[in-house]
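We modelled the chain as a single entity of 420 amino acids. Its sequence is:
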Amino acid sequence: MISNLKRNLTVLFLIVVTLIDFMGLGIVVTIFPKLLLDPSSYLLPASWKYASKLTALGLFLAIYPLGQFFGAAILGKLSDHAGRKKLLIVTLIGTMIGFLVSGLAIAIQSALILFISRLFSGLFAGNIAIVQAGLADISPDEKTKNRNFSLFQVALGVSWVFGPPMGGWLSSSSLCSWFNYTTPFWAISILLSIILLITIFYFRESLQNPSRDKIEVLGGIKQIYRAFFMPKLKIVFIIWFILVSGWWLFEAFLPTYLLQNFHFKPSQIGNFLAFMGATYALFQVLVVQRFSSLKPTAMVKGSLLIAGASVIGIAFVHSTLALHIVVVLFVTSMGFALPGVIISISNLANAAEQGQVMGMISSIQAIATVIMMMLGGWLESFGLGVTVIGGGTLLITAWVMFMLCFHKKNKITTSAQLES
């Protein structure tokens, strides 16, 4: 049996891994619009039209989750087989190398190497599936699982408190003469190296019963196929796909929207995303944690609808004050919706399938993000607000489907209880 102290330390460590991983994503989302769209930047050919650069921005953002799509399912299943610790060590090394090469690519102004390095980093970013499986390993009951997955969401929020400002500030030569677009990549690589050392020397394996199932190289594609044809889970996985599509169509291109519509600088974009992250994290700690005994389906009711409506509302505000108010509604609503949907999916699977199911969740999230990022750059070229309104519409669609799906499941469960 794992003592409460060891369990809490393991949770803390896994949360920190999540924090560092998503800080790296926050850095990229913050600086890439300026890096790729600014006429003074020579990473892309100067002869390219602005619409072509927007499409390229979408591809550069999409290549990371594309790598994550292929990596997550394999890594999640490998961790069921070989253990969480070994796979965390491998993925941390891979992620660190990827960020180092990205920094080098920007320094030598090679768009091709930067593109490849983002794919490489994404392949190893599938360790989020390992983190989630580890949290499931050490959660003895539903209340503890709710709390631990809520902390996971806190880490996502806190990562946006530190990641985007780090990208904005460390790339600003006005703060320090030797700061440039490569500096944030060196900084995140140092943080990853520290986490790697802690993993090697202090992290204790959380997996108690390793699986001996066959590991498939094309696990990502097969995971998607299986997810959408699993009798108990196919509908909720479709809902998850639509939810993530709306979430990332909006959030991935929010920095571009702020750059074009509000004329924010990278440092201002970083500060704004930090505000969103801080609000999300505080809401998780001060509000969601107090509702850890709440049923996951109850967490989604209403919250996902408000999130979608708030995103659409952003397209119709023109002052920074109104922008902040609407974003607070979105962030706090997603604070309930995201963990609620993930736990609802997790609860439909048995203990031996948690690593595989979390891998499916990550794979679906990755492929949905890839599709939306690839489409988003092209959609953004049609005019401001397209990705914002589209993202909100998809979130509302996911809410409608979730409500219909779990209303039906509850009716079936109630009928079964009455018959027994």
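As a brief sanity check on the tokenised model: The chain has one domain: 4-411. Residues 4-411 form a domain with the Growth Hormone; Chain: A; fold (CATH 1.20.1250.20).
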